[in-house]
Amino acid sequence: MFQGNVAGLHRWPVKSLRGERVGAARFDERGMAGDRAHALVDRRERRAGKILTVRQNPALLSWQSTYRDPGPDPAQAPVLHGPDGKEWAWDDPGLAAALADSLDLPLSLRAQDGQQDRGPTVLVTLEASRAALETELAAPVELDRFRPNLHLTLDAPAFAEEDWGAGTKITVGEVVLEVTGKNAGPCIRCAVPSWDPAGRERWPKLQTWLIEQHENKFGLIMRVTTPGTIGTGNPATAEPA
């Protein structure tokens, strides 16, 4: 068993856009409330109807999404912040055109309760592993590259979570998360972390290093089995399996 606390909570209102850090969040059958509850839909002929991601267009990271009310369970639509600093309401009739112009492709907006990309799961990362990765690469490794929901400081060794399998539990107050169900467990990374958090420059060595040294794993995909609200600084306990 390992103990520690919640170092940060990260919510991404629109899939593949930059997100926000919050002081508290609701965790339940949706995963993290308000996380990835909106998306941009590609309208190019060869990809019509598919969700846009950083893999197709890293410029998505030049836009940020937040909620005006950063409460634990946001009920309102997000606000987008463009590269020029202009703020756009999700229901602004000019938003889709502004995004299409910025990203140089036709698109539409989609709102959906719950997550768009990982299903009702939560991505958990550990500070010891991020710091160790930084040491291994002898360069800063920004946490936002990995787009976690729950970031923990635990007394577990760096990269211990790479071997945490089905049945692993993390308890934060009344909330219990478990490695259970399809696609849960150590997170196999795509190319997205190789882009800096603003999508300006790619660092291929990061992805290569993860593949060669860590079986391309970073973080832990979990599901909420007991719901509740988690706040930054809350005590956390991990029981690996």
From TrEMBL:
**Record InterPro entries:** MoCF_Sase_C, MOCOS_middle, Pyrv_Knase-like_insert_dom_sf
SUPFAM superfamilies according to UniProt: PK beta-barrel domain-like
Residues of the MOSC domain: 73-239
TM regions (residue ranges): none
**Domain of life assignment:** Bacteria
PROSITE patterns xrefs? MOSC (PS51340)
Q: What is this protein called?
A: MOSC N-terminal beta barrel domain-containing protein
- Organism name: Amycolatopsis cynarae
